[in-house]
Every structure is written in C-alpha cells, then in structure tokens.
Here is the input.
Amino acid sequence: MRRERGTAGERRPAGRGRTEFPLPGTGASAARLYWESFRQVQRRFAGATTDVVTVPTGCSIFPKENPRPSRRWAAKRFTDIRHWNELDRGGHFAAFEQPEAFVNEVRTFFRSVR
Here is the structure.
C-alpha cells in the first residue's frame, strides 16, 4: 500500500482523509452548490425563523465558517441550547482542521445531556 505524509509527520494510507480537486468535473459542481445556496443561507440567518428546534442543542462556532450564526439568532430557533462555544481556529471542515478541538466540543455537549 502506498503511503503519504499526514500532519505532524504521521503516516497514513494514500488518498485517505482528504479529497483534492480536480477530480473529474467535481470542482465546478462543488463551487456551484456553494454559489447557488450562499445567498439563501445568508437570508435565513438574517431573517426571522419560523421553525423551532426543541431538543437539547450544542453549537460550536468555528471562526472560518461562513456564514456564522449569532447566539441571538440561534436562541430563537434552538430553544434548548446546552452548549455554545466560539473557538479560535477551524472552519467548514473543523473535524479535519482541528480534530482535537472538534472531539472536545462533541464530548462537552454530550456530557451535559447524560
């Protein structure tokens, strides 16, 4: 099995843990999905929310995620926020970018609902 270097010198099987563009024709379709939905998501965050989520909720807000919901907006929709944290690093792919922080966030939330 061919191996490649991961982060911090770790070795992992080639091709696992990341996807790179260009795969055949996928870069444009991925960009199109974001482009077409971006304004819709922004409108949702900016406007009134009509649907409400009542189950216990945990929110980990990573600084490079776009768009980022405010606590005030989230509280209108998610009526039982048990965990809210705004982290220093990470973005849309937080589980890959900051795996330790991501796991800590998930664990912290689930400790609160045990």
The helical segments are 26-46, 71-77, 94-97, 99-112.
